[in-house]
Amino acid sequence: MRLAELARTTGVSAATIKYYLREGLLHDGALTSATQAEYDVSHATRLRLIRALVGTAGLSLAQARNVLHAVDSPPESLHDLLGRAHEVVTPPGHADVDTGEAEALLDRWGWPLDQCDPRVLGGLAAALDGARSAGFVFPETVLDAYGDAARRMAGAELSKVPLDSLEAAIRYVTLGTLLAEPVILALRRIAQQIASQERFEATRAGGSSAEPAGASPPPS
Q1: Distance (Å, whole) CA 44 – CA 46
Q2: What three-state secondary structure class fits 30?
Q3: Which is the most buried residue in 50, 52, 90, 113, by most CB within 10 A?
Q4: Region label for 27, one of left (φ > 0), alpha (ψ between -120 and 50) or beta (otherwise)
Q5: Nearest-angstrom CA–CA distance, 82 and 174
Q6: pLDDT band at 218 (very low <50, low <70, confident <90, very high)
Q7: C-alpha to C-alpha distance for 52 and 165, rounded to whole angstroms
Q8: pTM metric for this prediction
Q9: CB 174 within 8 A of CB 49
Q10: Which of 50-59, 88-97, 112-121 has the lowest mean pLDDT?
Q11: What local confidence, expressed as pLDDT, does residue 205 receive?
Q12: In the predicted model, what is the mean pLDDT of residues 8-25?
């Protein structure tokens, strides 16, 4: 297909496609003349991937380039590949943050600190410190719920890494790590809306309810 057809097929403008080609995010098409090239399904697939990274995952073009490099030239270990994906979305400055509080939290949960990337651990520390600076301290039970949910999510995600194809495993680990976060955030907000209605909405009878739905009334 020609450039115009590729643009129509993917919904990406011809000007943007040309930019991705110049930046090396998209591989060249097959030249048919000095000024014309043919593109195929691999180009459409790559463009959809770039759009998912830049749009859905909210990455910058520089970050997207790093992800694409990890997909095209992966490390030997899938565990190292996961670290590469984390590197993309973790600001390098987080490695210099005081992680004492975050380390104490993970230690209380029994999580092995020697398996945590210092930058990712620094990201948790920075998030906790930012909340405290805003005058908000997470209740311990809420942090415990976050930790429990995070471990269960991670276990479910990594149990589905395809092992019969290295290419499929690479795409799953790299893209799944990045593209799942908007899904998780949206689900959390939906769950908050449901939980809020269950706890705070007035009942149809006109009384107020401070108990979760299904809770038994106090004894008379």
Answers
A1: 5
A2: strand
A3: 50
A4: beta
A5: 6
A6: very low
A7: 22
A8: 0.69
A9: no
A10: 88-97
A11: 45
A12: 91
- Whether 174 and 81 have beta carbons less than 8 Å apart is answered as yes
**What are phi and psi for residue 202, nearest 5 degrees?**
-70, 145
In b/e form, how buried is each residue of 198-213, taking b as 16+ CB within 10 angstroms?
eeeeeeeeeeeeeeee
Q: Please state, in angstroms and as integers, the Cα–Cα distance from residue 12 to each residue in 30, 43, 71, 109, 201, following that order.
A: 19, 11, 21, 46, 44
| 202: its two tokens | 């007035």
Query: Are 125 and 94 within 8 A, CB to CB?
Result: yes
Query: pLDDT band at 214, cuts 50/70/90?
Result: very low
Contact predicate 39/47, CB 8 Å: no
Q: Which tokens is 192 given?
A: 């908050």
Q: Closest by alpha carbon to 113, among 149, 105, 151, 86? A: 105
pLDDT at 124: 92
